[in-house]
Amino acid sequence: MNIIEGIGCDAFLHSLCTFTGGGGKSSLMYKTAEELSSAGFNVLVSTTTMIYHPDEKKRPYSSLVIADSNTIQKNLEKRVSSFHASGKGSITVAASQIIETNKERKLKGFSEELLDFIYKLHIFDVVLVEGDGAKHFSIKAPGEREPVTPRETGMVFGVVGLDILGKLINSKTVFRLDQFLKVTHAQKNDSIDREILLRLADAENGLFKNSPSKAEKILVLNKADTLDSADKADETGRYILSRSSSISKVMITTAKDLNPVIRVLKKEI
Description:
The chain is 29% helix and 25% strand. The chain is α/β, with parallel strands linked by helices and 269 residues long.
């Protein structure tokens, strides 16, 4: 199934969603944007940190808007009005500037306050925000000032790559190792298992750190195709969901696939 089938199309309408963690977070965000656009939604994609220019990773988008805080509203309203007129869905990527580093282009985003303001203008059907970086790691703990999550966020997607299961905890496998050890109460060179993923997801300073109290927390176990069997992903998800005090759903995915969602597990009431 696709992402909007797994979560529910109505859940995305007029929502602000923030994506945190590692292991395919950006791919998942753009896949969500692509699906929503195909369903007729006008989607804004942005960040409170930095993301790659969409052309660098061949991401889908309809329009790119680069503007500062004084002109962003006018620029976005002008751009999205043309999409409304066409009656088709769209993906607008917005940032404050383009930065070139090591022959790669990245986009610098906006403050959470500005993204909250843009969301409340209701000129987009959905706003998708990347809230932290992971340096291509499949698992991480948030830094001191991470993630930067807008207060109007209604759903937080916390992403972990399942290819990390069974790996030893060290600087080559975990981004922000010191914070990770504190958050999970693990030791260096411990094997990463489902219990450690549970601790990361449920800790106050873990995967869903800085999430608004009203926001729904959805754990995404991505890269399920890297495991020996789909049953292992399912067992991991069920273990975490049954013991978590804060997660409402676990979505098991392979973000690179056309239909990325393998299963959505929901908390039993």
